[in-house]
Write a structure and sequence with these properties.
mainly alpha; 68% helix; globular
Length: 206
């Protein structure tokens, strides 16, 4: 009985870590860079243009704005259907190793896309969703805010692990912290503490 509980849990953890790296590489290599695929295949060209050009151009100077009707927010969402279909061939191959792993992979991909859509929409089109006050969400919002300030950093959105392993994470500057506080992603005490720390460090360097 214990075996049937531990194995799926172990698969979930391993595949969630793998998903962090998949998220990182797709975001970095397909959504932010022109390559052979985006140059030759319309579908990949559309992914690049929607994200790197449309999305980042719109949210370059502002981080969020008013909600829009469903259907006009395509550049903010990942397609659950496409994610499932893209994961399906890999899942089929995984059945040769473990049917539990294969099923868990589909669950992880769909769960990732669902969470991405929920938090990404709240970040850019805030509607005070039930999780908007959670500390985990605010951490992810701060993390993603830095990606829009520094597009070559912080590629992870849902699972910020690969950025740390691959060295593409970045720390917030004083002005970043002040803007995070204005956006409601950072508590006043913490923002003040960072500000005092920055001033102290500056004095020490002088």
């Amino acid at each position: 009985m214990m075996q049937y509980t531990i194995q799926p849990l172990a698969w979930f953890v391993v595949l969630a870590v793998l998903m962090s790296f998949i998220e990182h590489q797709i975001h970095r290599s397909l959504m932010h860079r022109k390559n052979i695929l985006s140059g030759r295949l319309p579908a990949f060209k559309k992914v690049f243009e929607h994200h790197a050009i449309l999305h980042h151009r719109h949210y370059h100077k502002i981080f969020n704005d008013e909600p829009v009707p469903h259907g006009q927010d395509r550049h903010l969402r990942l397609s659950m259907k496409e994610g499932f279909l893209e994961a399906l061939p890999i899942s089929v191959l995984m059945t040769t190793i473990s049917w539990q792993g294969a099923l868990t992979f589909l669950i992880v991909v769909c769960l990732h896309h669902f969470i991405w859509n929920q938090i990404h929409m709240e970040m850019h089109k805030p509607e005070k969703r039930f999780f908007s006050h959670w500390s985990t969400y605010k951490f992810l919002a701060r993390y993603h805010y830095l990606h829009h300030r520094y597009p070559n950093k912080n590629f992870n959105v849902v699972l910020p692990l690969a950025d740390y392993v691959l060295g593409t994470n970045i720390r917030a500057s004083k002005s970043d912290l002040e803007e995070m506080y204005r956006l409601g992603f950072l508590q006043l005490r913490r923002a003040e503490a960072h500000s005092v720390s920055e001033k102290h460090s500056t004095k020490e360097r002088v």
